[in-house]
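Example record used in the benchmark description.
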Amino acid sequence: SELEVSAERKKIIRYTVDYMSHLPLLLHTPNSARHLEKKSPD
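Model output (structure tokens):
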């Protein structure tokens, strides 16, 4: 039904927004920072 589709879409959007909001945290973990430091010349 229309309502079910709408609810599913809202759920997917919520998961996507949640995932996107966590991306910066994943990208700025200590591991990735350490990895970048190793690559830099000094």
